[in-house]
Write a structure and sequence with these properties.
single chain; alpha+beta; GTP Cyclohydrolase I, domain 2; 4-stranded antiparallel beta sheet
């Protein structure tokens, strides 16, 4: 088994409970860790024998474009879409960070981590 990670994916999106967040938007950073069997790809050097991370990125990008109020909803949608499109992924972990959240104080980000 191997873990394929795609870290630091940045998206400008409109997720949040506050009306301003849904109108103005903010930056989000997504890290995704996919557990899959890469034994065949290790031997064949064939992209079709593993999870294509370009295609995974496109799935994440598409889901980030769908507005949600909660990071929980965004993260679960992404995990479901990844599992639906890439059945060879046995487990997945995602971390979604909302940068500079409007919480009335200085902080880098808030985040949510989900696993399947």
């Amino acid at each position: 088994m191997a873990v394929i990670s795609i870290e630091g994916m940045e998206f400008y999106a409109y997720h949040g409970c506050f009306k301003e967040e849904q109108l103005i938007g903010t930056w989000f950073v997504v890290d995704l860790f996919l557990t899959t069997d890469t034994t065949s790809a290790e031997q064949t050097d064939n992209l079709h024998e593993t999870v294509n991370y370009l295609e995974v990125y496109q799935v994440v990008k598409r889901e980030m474009e769908v507005n949600s109020k909660l990071l929980e909803h965004v993260g679960r949608r992404i995990l479901k879409a990844v599992h639906d499109q890439f059945p060879s992924v046995e487990k997945a972990r995602i971390k979604v960070r909302k940068m500079n959240p409007p919480l009335g104080g200085k902080m880098d980000f808030v985040s949510l981590t989900l696993e399947t």
